[in-house]
Write a structure and sequence with these properties.
By secondary structure, this protein is mostly helical. The chain has one domain: Alpha Horseshoe (Serine Threonine Protein Phosphatase 5, Tetratricopeptide repeat), CATH 1.25.40.20. 70% of the residues lie in helices and 0% in strands. It has seven helices and no strands. The longest helix has 14 residues. The model has no long low-confidence stretch (mean pLDDT 79).
Length: 98
C-alpha cells in the first residue's frame, strides 16, 4: 500500500514535492510519517519509508529529520521505540544508522 501511495505521489508531484510532502512533512503534532509508523509499530511501512528516504533525501536530512528529529513533545523515533519496549524497532533503527 505504501508503495502505491509513493508511486501515485511520483506521478502527481515533482521530485522535490514528493520529498517534502511525503517524507519530511509533519502533521499537526509535528510528526513525520516515519514517526507515526514508529509510534504505531508499523514495521513494514517504516521499512518502506526508510528505503525510499535513502533513495530520495540526503543523509543530513535523514539524520536531522527522520532519525533524530523530534515531534512537538520532543520525542524522536528512538524515544518512541524505547517507550513502547519494542526491541524489533530498536534493532531496525540500529541497522539504519549503520
Amino acid at each position: 500500500m505504501v508503495q502505491e501511495i509513493l508511486e501515485c505521489g511520483k506521478e502527481k508531484l515533482t521530485a522535490e514535492e514528493v520529498i517534502r510532502k511525503l517524507l519530511l512533512a509533519t502533521d499537526v503534532k509535528g510528526r513525520t510519517a516515519c514517526q507515526v509508523a514508529m509510534r504505531d509499530s508499523y514495521v513494514e511501512v517504516l521499512r518502506q519509508l526508510w528505503e525510499w528516504a535513502r533513495e530520495k533525501i540526503t543523509k543530513e536530512e535523514i539524520n536531522n529529520v527522520l532519525l533524530f528529529g523530534t515531534e512537538n513533545n520532543r520525542s524522536s523515533v528512538w524515544h518512541m521505540a524505547a517507550n513502547w519496549y519494542n526491541l524489533l524497532l530498536l534493532a531496525e533503527l540500529c541497522e539504519w544508522v549503520k
